[in-house]
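task queued by scheduler; priority normal; single chain, no ligands, no partner chains; default sampling; output format set to structure tokens
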Amino acid sequence: MDGSTLTLAGVLSALAPLVISLINRPSWSKSVKQLVAIAASVVLGVVALALTGGFTGGDDVATVLLAVVGAAQSAYALVWKPSGVAPKLERATSRDRYDLAA
């Protein structure tokens, strides 16, 4: 596996929870939020592979994608959730915060 692929995948994984927080909504169920997180992480893994030529360089695509998903979940659990940044970003960018029924 190419070092540049892993480096870019690592950087994107660390920032993935912030991107995911822009998409997720507080009112969504936990399972929907998890699906969004996995899908967004896979997309970021594909971006890392595409930008570094990983699809043609013989990188193990499944390994890179699984690493991005796992690292993004770890970054969320260890950094972004405890710091409160990701949850605050999710609430701040959610239309759900406006009670349109009232």
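post-processing summary
- The longest helix spans residues 61-83.
- The helical segments are 3-23, 30-51, 61-83, 85-92.
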